[in-house]
Design brief:
The complex is a heterodimer of chains A (about 350) and B (about 400). Chain A is α+β, with helices and mostly antiparallel strands and about 350 residues long. With about 400 residues, chain B is α+β, with helices and mostly antiparallel strands. In chain B, strands 2-16-17-18-19-14-15 form a 7-stranded mixed sheet. In chain B, strands 5-4-3-12-7 form a 5-stranded mixed sheet, with helices on one face. In chain B, strands 8-9-11 form a 3-stranded mixed sheet, with no helix packed on it. In chain B, helix 2 packs antiparallel against helix 3 and helix 3 packs across helix 4. The longest helix of chain B has 23 residues. Chain B starts with 11 loop residues before the first helix and ends with a strand. The chains are: A alpha+beta (about 350), B alpha+beta (about 400).
């Protein structure tokens, strides 16, 4: 229940460097496979892999973090709390385990504990955007509780719940994604094309500051060209392309939000590299399922950088995903290719 | 303060002028009016209330920023919305990590209590609303001359407007209202209570002190039933709100029914002075359409039996429709019975025509209905046309007349 409300962190940004050098080939493969399986929603095999990995690396934070995530999705809340608590004890400098711990506490209705955990996360990284956003939501929960008590609103009453949901629908319904119409050049900058009417004020925490620190060296895939050089060479055409790419990414997010599976899949290139290397058909089937299952999806994207080289490009974006069952925000890297005048996604992965 | 000087008779010119004034001032959009409402949740009565409900109900799901945004929208349109300012303060405190409801300090809380009541009744209207297809039991039949009827449910602090659809009520819209600071069932002048009963709007007033907002509609308190029960006082109006506040707390007037000025202007378009009934009841019962139809059939059958038995010339059967507690214009049941027996014995035939009939209910004992109708009475030795009003009470499973009067 709480997952619907708060942003769960799906990756540790700054992995303790002590472990980087010690990576052993075979266990690292286990972890990667576990991550892929988790991303596909295959929780049980993912758990088997991560357990195998942790047998050789019992203290390694990425593996433990993933285990916590899997337990969370399996709704094994006490076990998940145990895993994330362990991480906060062993790696008190990492903000993400605190954040996820807070999400779990909030799912139990324990907003005070959730609040403390988020405050610790912010204490470790004052600019950690996810924790700030989550803390705002916790404050909203607490305020809502205060009103429920003061107004004697019985929200446990089922009929009230039903009607509540409907009142809320009236409330939320019109706040869907606005059409991106801004001029390309403007869009390519920090300002996202789509306004989010739901949150009239600008997001307070400066996400840009956090991102570089959160890049994962192990995964980093160097962009094909330094963005600055490319931009300098052909300023105006590059800006046009960036506008087109931004528009393509926004169209993709919009199709996803409106659960338009056909348009969503059409955003991917025919030679799209499926995340687990599975056949295109299997991947499409799995995506279709994941998009159709939730009652509602809202995906907001904020493109942070685009590097174009000829007919290919790499875009890094901040993605907030929210459905009736899950709410996450993460950094994503998309490799795009231009085919027939359209920019299509060639590769998609989590991380900057 | 609502105990005003005695009301003049309705004047047609004044009525037309007020209608023109109010119509000109109407907002262009009226969310709930005349929309075909099929959702289970009531449509929002107006944008200010919509923002309030969205902010508080949506807090959990949509967060503080959106809630503050909603309140800001409401306040930008109605800067004198005091409840809105209070909630905005709460939400700003919450954003600073100190969640409070209706003020943090004791002194603010004490002053905020009436506003808290207002928030509660406004929200409950949406959270505990009867299903949308349900009908109010007191609104049983509208006369053809009544295009609309007004129902005040004092327990919900709400005024409902119904349109006349072939004699049956069709929901049109509803408004938050403020009532007497000492509650309901007015008895005495100055008791600061709102009367309960079946009334009519008798006039329309404008150019009033600003305390009353843009206008007022006096109702027919005390009516014949009130007078029978020695209830006094006068000057019960439906009126607006002073300029310094958008709305007043639920229990704040001297017995009048106060609406926000926007809502009063919207109400004005449904008012036909001299005709529009105002039914004021406590704890109005809303029932499924089938049950409502059953109640209607049951009562109308009892009434028709009374008419038919009168025509039958069987005085005992006719008198059986009257309660032992019956009274009429100074007569008690015994003297009434004697009179009827005497009159009845000299007739060879009687025809009773009933038209322009309305039936509105009151919550009393097992139930009470007020029937008003044009009676076309013809008999072998006397004929007349009158407008009659009867109060019927359910007593041991049977409907009986407890009071009858000729109103014109």
């Amino acid at each position: 229940m709480l997952l619907r409300i708060l942003r769960l962190e799906v990756a540790i940004a700054a992995v303790a460097l002590a472990f980087a050098g010690a990576a052993i080939a075979a266990p690292a493969d286990d972890l990667r496979e576990a991550q892929t399986l988790y991303a596909q929603g295959r929780l049980q095999p993912a758990m088997e892999r991560v357990d195998a990995y942790l047998k050789t690396q019992p203290r390694e934070p990425q593996g433990r973090f993933l285990k916590g995530l899997i337990l969370t999705e399996q709704k094994k809340v006490p076990e998940a709390i145990q895993v994330f608590t362990g991480l906060t004890e062993d790696f008190p400098e990492l903000p993400e385990p605190y954040n996820n711990l807070a999400v779990l506490y909030a799912s139990l209705g324990n907003y005070e504990k959730a609040k403390s955990a988020l405050e610790l996360a912010i204490h470790t990284h004052p600019s950690y955007a996810t924790a700030h956003e989550n803390l705002g939501d916790i404050y909203a929960q607490l305020a809502s509780r205060a009103y429920d008590r003061a107004l004697q609103l019985d929200k446990n009453n089922t009929t009230a719940q039903v009607k509540l949901a409907m009142v809320k629908d009236i409330f939320v319904a019109p706040k869907s994604i606005a059409p991106p119409k801004a001029e390309a050049a403007k869009v390519a900058k920090a300002e996202p094309a789509r306004v989010e009417p739901a949150r009239p004020e600008a997001k307070a925490p400066p996400t840009a500051k956090v991102e570089p620190a959160r890049a994962e060296p192990a995964k980093s895939e160097p962009p094909k060209a330094e963005p600055k050089a490319a931009a300098a060479k052909a300023a105006s055409p590059a800006a046009d392309e960036k506008g087109a790419i931004t528009a393509a990414i926004e169209a993709w997010a919009r199709a996803w939000s409106s659960k338009d599976v056909k348009s969503y899949l059409a955003a991917y290139a025919p030679d799209f590299e499926t995340p687990g290397g599975e056949p295109r058909g299997a991947w499409e089937k799995q995506r279709t399922e994941r998009i159709e299952r939730p009652k509602s999806i809202e995906v907001l994207v904020k493109v942070q950088s685009i590097a174009v080289e000829g007919d290919s490009a790499v875009a890094v974006l901040r993605q907030s995903y929210r459905s009736d069952t899950l709410k996450t925000s993460s950094t994503k890297t998309l490799k795009l290719v231009k085919a027939g005048g359209k920019w299509l996604i060639k590769q998609e992965r989590v991380g900057g | 303060m609502s105990e005003r000087a005695r009301q003049p008779r309705p004047r047609r010119a004044a009525r037309a002028a007020l209608a023109a004034l109010l119509a000109a001032a109407l907002p262009s959009t009226a969310p709930a009016d005349d929309a075909a409402p099929d959702a289970a949740v009531p449509a929002f009565a107006n944008e200010v209330e919509a923002s309030l409900v969205r902010a508080i109900v949506g807090l959990r799901e949509s967060g503080l920023r959106q809630a503050i945004g909603e309140i800001d929208v409401a306040l930008s349109k109605t800067p004198n919305f005091r409840l809105g300012h209070l909630i905005r303060g709460d939400l700003l405190m919450a954003r600073a990590g100190i969640p409070v409801a209706f003020g943090q300090t004791a002194s603010v809380r004490a002053g905020a209590a009436p506003l808290q009541d207002e928030a509660r009744v406004r929200l409950k209207h949406y959270l505990d609303a009867p299903p949308r297809d349900h009908l109010p039991l007191p609104m049983l039949k509208l006369a053809p001359t009544q295009a609309h009827a007004i129902l005040v449910d004092t327990s919900r602090s709400r005024l409902f407007v119904f349109a006349n659809q072939g004699g049956e009520p069709r929901y049109v819209t509803d408004f938050y209202i403020s009532l007497g600071k000492n509650g309901v069932e007015k008895r005495r002048e100055g008791d600061q209570k709102t009367p309960v009963g079946v009334y009519t709007i008798v006039s329309a007033k404008q150019k009033l002190p600003e305390f009353y907002g843009p206008g007022a509609f006096p109702i027919s308190y005390p009516n014949e039933w009130d007078k029978l029960h020695k209830r006094n006082g006068y000057g019960i109006w439906l009126h607006g709100t002073p300029p310094e506040t958008y709305s007043r707390p639920p229990w704040a007037t001297d017995g009048c029914v106060a609406l926000t000025n926007d809502d009063l202007r919207r109400l004005a378009r449904y008012v036909d002075v001299g005709r529009t009934p105002v039914v004021i009841g406590e704890g109005v019962e809303w029932v499924a359409p089938e049950r409502w139809q059953d109640s209607r059939r049951d009562f109308l059958a009892a009434f028709e039996q009374w008419r038919a038995d009168w025509e039958s010339l069987d005085v005992d059967r006719y008198l059986d429709h009257y309660s032992p507690r019956f009274r009429s214009d100074g007569k008690d049941f015994a003297s009434w019975r004697a009179h009827k027996r005497k009159v009845g014995s000299g007739k060879s035939w009687v025809k009773v025509g009933v038209s322009d009939m309305s039936v509105f209910g009151l919550p009393a004992g097992e139930g009470m209905f007020v029937v008003t109708f044009a009676q076309d009475y013809r008999s072998s030795n006397l004929s007349n046309r009158t407008v009659k009003r009867q109060y019927w009470e359910r007593d041991q499973g049977r409907w009986r007349v407890v009071f009858e009067t000729v109103i014109s």
